[in-house]
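DM from R.C. (forwarded with permission)

"hey, sorry to bug you on a friday — could you get me a structure for this? deadline for the figure draft is monday and I only need the backbone to look sensible"
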Amino acid sequence: MSARLWVNRNFRLLFASALATNLGDGLIAVAVPWLATLLTEDPLLIGLVAAARHLPWALFALPAGVLTDRHDHHRLILGADAARLVLSVALMTLALTASAGTGPVLGLAALAFLLGAAEVLRDNTAQTFLPDVVDKTQLERANGALWATERLAGQLLGPPLAAFLIGLSIALPFGAQTLLLLAALGLIGAMHLMSRRHDRGHQPALLAIREGLGWLWSNPKLRRLALVAGGFNFVGYGFFAIFVLYAQDVLGLDVFGYGLFLTLVAVGGLIGSVLGPMVAVRIGPTASLLTSIAMFSASSAALALQAPLWVIAAFMLADAFCSMLWDITVVSYRQRYIPAPLLGRVNSAYRFIGTGPAALGAFAFGALVSWAQTADDPASGLLLPYAVASAVTAALAFYAVFRLRL
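My reply, with the result:
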């Protein structure tokens, strides 16, 4: 079964393009927040930059689903990656020319917002695209391989490479991402697929959106899963929006230490991408989701209690493994059970509910730090948000025990 997957030329090209784009995303994941901290020390503005990257999920996820179902998936991915390439050039220009101040931070937030908008269309289309490329019996293996590239390139290789490049120039990670996106465009362009549009005579957009939302909401399991994911992502994205400040002010890490720490944590995700499909099948989807939520709650508690660095690293490594279980379980479930003609719209409806709150969480956690910290001890305000994250996710786990069964 695994050999059949890699014989598939289109999947090999998709995998290689994912390797390139995820390495670029790993560079950006470190470079954007680090650039924000060079431009301002205000946690509210730093949270705003993180929120801007995720706000498009709340604004554009539903229209993106209509576009995904209405147009050729291959061309949509090419268009989204071309837009990301242009934006990476703009980010490189900002990094080269900007000086500290509110104006440049707002410019960074605007570019992060546009980059997030392109990613909404790209990510939704890519998840809908995979069943066009591989057989449904291979979805777990294909998703596991693609998630492995995200962990290997985006989280293992990307952060230390970004740290090295930032040490030379803050603009270099953005330049490298531009080259990687050029490579990804060439690889995706080399794929040969039959167009599989499931458009019903260009149904009006609002009716198409209503159909996708309606199908999701009428499915109790998917509806509850989306609601739990929304709460989980609210605190999860808030967690990582301010983690760059926690790393600097509480853990005392410089850019190299921060990059190496993220790389170490990503080892858990890489292991999860390899073993996750087997573990998810063995313990079942419900147990996979509950384990993921519980581990995130424990990791947040470790940060709130200001545990030693090695303890925090161990918890976050385990959390990365469990997060992989969540991703493989949830994405494969949606790809398998949502009808193909509705997959783009229902996927986008799910992401609207499940990922849309991420922007609010990122901004809320930045605001919470700004409110809680004191002038004498700026690090003090960074503990409270992680206590909140631990409590909220513990409540979500309690709800899921009784109400979420896949």
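R.C.: lifesaver. The chain has a mean pLDDT of 83.
me: no worries. The two ends are 25 Å apart (CA to CA).
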